[in-house]
Design brief:
With about 80 residues, this protein is α+β, with helices and mostly antiparallel strands. Helices cover about 15% and strands about 35% of the residues. It binds zinc ion.
């Protein structure tokens, strides 16, 4: 297991940032990707997410290499408020 990274305090609200392994959405060239198992610094107060250079590099690489594990369908909803 890698040591949790120390993210410092939240840049936006000063809240405590704790590392969690979550799935994140990532857009690249107009396509939406879901990346699982991402160690992410999450602000306990406002929910802002932080990635280390190592993690964002790894996400970048897996997208560019087309390292697709599986594909899921995403339901698109309409709230009916637009004219
Ligand atoms: Zn925050």
């Amino acid at each position: 297991m890698r040591e949790p990274h120390d993210y410092g305090d939240c840049y936006f609200c000063g809240g405590e940032v704790k590392e969690k392994v979550i799935e994140v959405e990532f857009r690249w060239k107009g396509k939406l990707y879901l990346v699982e198992g991402v160690p992410t610094g999450v602000c306990q107060q406002c929910g802002e997410k932080y990635f280390t250079a190592e993690v964002s590099g790894a996400i970048d690489r897996s997208i560019k290499e087309g390292n697709v594990k599986r594909t899921v369908e995403i339901p698109v909803l309409e709230i009916g408020l637009s004219a």
